[in-house]
Amino acid sequence: MKINEQKLSEFVDRAIKDLAAGYGGVMIGxxxxxxxxxxxxGAGPLSSHEVAARSGCAERYVRxxxxxxxxxxxxxxxPDSATYELTAEQSAVLAEEDSPVFLPPAWEVPFSMLFxxxxxxxxxxxxxxxxxxxxxxxxxxGVAAFYRNGYRNNLVSDWLPALEGVEEKLRAGAxxxxxxxxxxxxxxxMSEAFPHSSFWGFDYHQGSIDAASENxxxxxxxxxxxxxxxxxxxxxxxxxxxxxxFDCLHDMGDPVGVAQHARETLAEDGTVxxxxxxxxxxxxxxxxxxxxxxxxxxxxxxxxxxxxxxxxEALGAQAGEARLANxxxxxxxxxxxxxxxxxxxxxxxxxx
Length: 352
Hints:
There is one protein chain. The protein folds into two domains: 92 residues, Arc Repressor Mutant, subunit A; 245 residues, Rossmann fold, CATH 3.40.50.150. The protein is 49% helix and 16% strand. α6 packs antiparallel against α8. 41% of the residues are buried.
């Protein structure tokens, strides 16, 4: 097969950029955990000595780190003054922990994937699954932090109001289940916004439930939100007005069975809120940076967990609206619709 030298050069360039991005992720983790970005936020141009002093770090390490950030366009370098500056836009992504686009903790996820590489190799060769609970603990922190701010900035203000009649029920006092709640950020956000409602978070992972309970205590909402260890087909039937699945249904081994259990535990006029990773229905619709992100995570996390459970449907993180609608149709739901979409999520509603 004859090689086109120009295409080869272009592809090598792409691969080198990806390799540099991987190195850059390590630098982002250091910048976040050492407070380097926070030290630069809103401060204007700073020398390496000033950044080191403000962050309490050694200048020689800081100087090399700053140059790596400048090379990646993660901050500005001013040659005339030999200073470095974190712009307002860069600060929103790298330094402001409540920003909807704050990303440094998300790097915990690929770091965990690297730690679990041998598990993935074995799974590829055997076809066996990898349960969520056996992954490196950095996964749990990274996923919780990555999704938290998206939920905080969209769930109450945009997604819940898009559901038919649900916001009114929540204001009056509703019963809500958050299935696959993880560290409980989504549950707590809803409980803070709707103090007359009662909330239950369920997850099969004990460590996540412990973290969620502590987060509820810190937020001061433990009187109206409780967390329990239970899988998605065994939590109790309580005539819930709303059952939520935040970025987790596609991980389930038996999504139809999970949806059937939700139908059985809903009130007669109840609603399911399904938040799923954004995806088109065809592979070619998802061949873009977001699709690459989700397909990669799905390979070692989402499909792997599904294959560890009975059923092993392995919908994957790029299931798409049509396949998800079919899940709820098989489970006996009569209504299913897309309410909203963001670059990262599909917001879907199902009713009996």
